[in-house]
């Protein structure tokens, strides 16, 4: 867990961290990605499913000590066959397998026609009476600028930060999801007591939503 001093440094240096794109901590500052992972790890209740884990399955391996499973639809670097789920709207896991499910900065990349179905699957594979879903999403303008900044950074400096470009975005994906849609879709899936907390270290432009499975799907 980051110290208060570190978080104050990160807050003051947020513009630099947003422009000088880096995936790992550098110059005594936290990367935006590692910061998201820190916020999310604090909400995990136990064995966790990280949907859309990305390269290296970092959230599970580095921030949860391996206590979970990271999966993705795309075979990113560092992922094996056990990490690939071709259709997340039909998860290959039994009911109540996980204590937490994380969708870290990627709900917008679930194609709209299957977004509800995937969230319903998240609900199904969570344990009843204490399982939670963790979703992060930035403000619409911030998300658009972030995608543009990453694209331009890769083009100018020949880096490979833009995993969306590597995978290829489908027509029904989006660059952001608004708060109202997040709350409505979580409610339709069955989640209750949804809370929102902004990342003050990112100037309140990013937020984490946490919802709970308090009952079974037919109760």
Structure write-up:
With 219 residues, the chain is an alpha/beta fold. It has one domain (35-213): Rossmann fold (3-Layer(aba) Sandwich), CATH 3.40.50.150. Helices cover 36% and strands 16% of the residues. It is built from eight helices and six strands, in the order H-H-H-E-H-E-E-H-E-H-H-H-E-E. The chain has helices spanning 4-12, 14-19, 32-41, 58-63, 112-125, 140-157, 163-167, 179-189; strands at 48-51, 68-71, 100-104, 131-138, 192-198, 206-213. Strands 2-1-3-4-6-5 form a six-stranded mixed sheet, sandwiched between helices. Helix 5 (112-125) links the parallel strand 3 (100-104) and strand 4 (131-138). Helix 5 (112-125) packs across helix 8 (179-189). 32% of the residues are buried. The mean pLDDT is 89.
What is the highest CATH level, the class? Alpha Beta
Helical coverage, percent range: 25-40%
Question: According to CATH, what is the topology?
Answer: Rossmann fold
> Based on the structure given, which CATH architecture is correct?
3-Layer(aba) Sandwich
Largest sheet: 6 strands, mixed
Strand content: 15-25%
Order of helices and strands: HHHEHEEHEHHHEE
The residue ranges in which pLDDT falls below 50 over 5 or more consecutive positions are none
| Structural class category | alpha/beta
Instruction: Give the overall average pLDDT.
Output: 89
């Amino acid at each position: 867990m980051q110290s208060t001093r570190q978080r104050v440094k990160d807050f003051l240096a947020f513009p630099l961290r947003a422009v000088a794109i880096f995936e790992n901590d550098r110059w005594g500052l936290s990367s935006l990605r590692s910061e998201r992972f820190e916020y999310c790890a604090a909400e995990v209740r136990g064995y966790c499913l990280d949907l859309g884990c990305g390269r290296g399955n970092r959230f599970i391996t580095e921030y949860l000590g391996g206590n979970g499973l990271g999966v993705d639809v795309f075979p990113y670097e560092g992922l094996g066959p056990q990490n690939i789920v071709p259709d997340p709207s039909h998860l290959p896991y039994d009911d109540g397998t996980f204590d937490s499910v994380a969708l870290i900065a990627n709900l917008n990349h679930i194609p709209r026609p299957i977004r509800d179905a995937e969230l319903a699957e998240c609900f199904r594979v969570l344990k009843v009476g204490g399982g939670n879903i963790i979703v992060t999403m930035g403000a619409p303008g911030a998300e658009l600028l972030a995608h543009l900044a990453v694209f331009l950074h890769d083009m100018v400096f020949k880096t490979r930060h833009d995993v969306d470009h590597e995978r290829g975005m489908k027509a029904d994906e989006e660059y952001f999801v608004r708060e109202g849609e997040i709350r409505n879709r979580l409610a339709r899936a069955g989640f209750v007591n949804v809370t929102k907390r902004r990342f003050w270290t990112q100037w309140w432009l990013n937020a984490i939503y946490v919802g709970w499975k308090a009952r079974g799907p037919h109760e």
